[in-house]
């Protein structure tokens, strides 16, 4: 089988492309000109230069493909100019879905995010049916992905055989950027997290997320969404997990929310108007921490048979990789 993967130089996208190659798929990766494709070439993956914002380049890359995995996205918690984010996440998704329909692709797996689902405020786990209003979404990333999902659903109504998968908080090796979650791990390893906020997340192995994508292409029902996640734990428990793995002490001080929120507003304003650098306290991240992002992941486990490997193993792989590749000070 021949499959196109967009976003294959990203964290999840790389693992999806790698897994497909290991299962003897012919994998084509659509990669922007400026991106480093060396890790993909090393796996025997064919790299085609193009951009999801360029419709014709997507159509050409899809030639002869039976499967499409659309993971390309601009994932940042802070953007001084959000225009590019909407061009990639919304218009880019529209281009990719239109190209897939034009090419007659057999199955499309679109990578959304649990960020477009409503987080619970009463302790109940959110699931695939936990709808949220666009006005309730925090930050440009969530808003752009919300609009992108609308585009996907519009094309499903036009006959596109697409499935939406929504990863929760993946961790593991090859988080090169790193992602916001990967940066938390790196900061912990470098002793830069003296305190924490009272919040919680659903963590999952990035390898399991990649497998979930593949299983969704085989068994996912068209028009359905599947949350690709695993274990709900507090941020404090996650730091305790990292402490057990590394021998470092976890942060003990729990910060009150409102002073941190005020500090984030000041820090982001300073970054936006003065330095132009990423704020040390991302406002979007602080706002997101107000609610526990806990999810019921049973649908993917039951229908797709998605594996649920221990997140402690994934955390260890992430720690080992960050240490090995120079992200951690000696």
Q: In CATH, what is the homologous superfamily of the domain at 2-176 and 204-232 and 294-311?
A: NAD(P)-binding Rossmann-like Domain
What is the topology, as strand order, of the major beta sheet?
Answer: 3-2-1-4-5-6-10
Distance between the termini: 45 Å
Rounded mean pLDDT is 92
Proportion of beta-strand residues: 15-25%
Radius of gyration based on Cα positions: 19 Å
Q: Report the helical percentage.
A: 40-55%
Shape: globular
CATH class of the domain at 2-176 and 204-232 and 294-311: Alpha Beta
CATH fold field value of the domain at 2-176 and 204-232 and 294-311: Rossmann fold
Largest sheet: 7 strands, parallel
Low-confidence stretches: none
What's the count of strands?
12
Derived from helix and strand composition plus strand pairing, the structural class reads alpha/beta
Order of helices and strands: EHEHEHEHEHEEHEEHEEHEHHHH
The number of distinct helices, counting runs of at least 4 residues, comes to: 12
The CATH architecture of the domain at 2-176 and 204-232 and 294-311 can be named as: 3-Layer(aba) Sandwich
Polypeptide structure, described:
This protein is 44% helix and 15% strand. It is α/β, with parallel strands linked by helices and 330 residues long. It has a domain of 222 residues: 3-Layer(aba) Sandwich (Rossmann fold), CATH 3.40.50. The strands form 3 sheets. A 7-stranded parallel beta sheet has the order 3-2-1-4-5-6-10, sandwiched between helices. Strands 7-9-11 form a 3-stranded mixed beta sheet. The chain has a two-stranded parallel ribbon with strand order 8-12. Helix 2 links the parallel strand 2 and strand 3. The longest helix has 21 residues. The relative contact order is 0.14. The mean pLDDT is 92.
């Amino acid at each position: 089988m021949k499959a196109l993967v967009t976003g294959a130089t990203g964290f999840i996208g790389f693992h999806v492309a790698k897994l497909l190659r290991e299962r003897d798929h012919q994998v084509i990766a659509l990669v922007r000109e400026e991106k480093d494709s060396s890790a993909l070439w090393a796996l025997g993956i064919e790299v085609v230069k193009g951009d999801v914002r360029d419709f014709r380049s997507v159509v050409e890359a899809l030639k002869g493909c039976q499967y499409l995995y659309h993971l390309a996205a601009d994932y940042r918690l802070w953007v001084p100019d959000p225009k590019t984010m909407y061009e990639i996440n919304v218009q880019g998704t529209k281009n990719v879905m239109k190209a897939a329909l034009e090419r007659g692709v057999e199955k499309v797996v679109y990578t959304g995010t649990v960020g477009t689902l409503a987080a619970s405020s009463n302790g109940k786990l959110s699931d695939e049916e936990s709808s949220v209003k666009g006005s309730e979404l925090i930050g440009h990333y969530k808003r752009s992905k919300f609009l992108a999902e609308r585009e996907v659903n519009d094309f499903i109504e036009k006959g596109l055989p697409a499935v939406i998968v929504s990863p929760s908080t993946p961790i593991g090796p090859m988080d090169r950027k790193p992602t916001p979650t990967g940066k938390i791990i790196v900061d912990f390893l470098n002793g830069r997290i003296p305190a924490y906020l009272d919040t919680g997340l659903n963590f999952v192995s990035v390898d399991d997320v990649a497998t979930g994508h593949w299983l969704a292409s085989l068994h996912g029902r068209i028009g359905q969404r599947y949350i690709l996640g695993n274990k709900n734990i507090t941020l404090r428990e996650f730091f305790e997990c990292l402490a057990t793995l590394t021998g470092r002490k976890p942060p003990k001080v729990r910060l009150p929310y409102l002073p941190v929120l005020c500090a984030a507003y000041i820090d982001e304003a300073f970054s936006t108007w003065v330095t132009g650098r990423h704020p040390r306290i991302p406002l979007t991240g602080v706002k997101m921490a107000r609610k526990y992002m806990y999810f019921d992941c049973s649908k993917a486990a039951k229908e797709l048979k998605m594996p649920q490997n221990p997140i402690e193993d994934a955390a260890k792989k992430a720690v080992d990789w960050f240490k090995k590749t120079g992200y951690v000070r000696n």
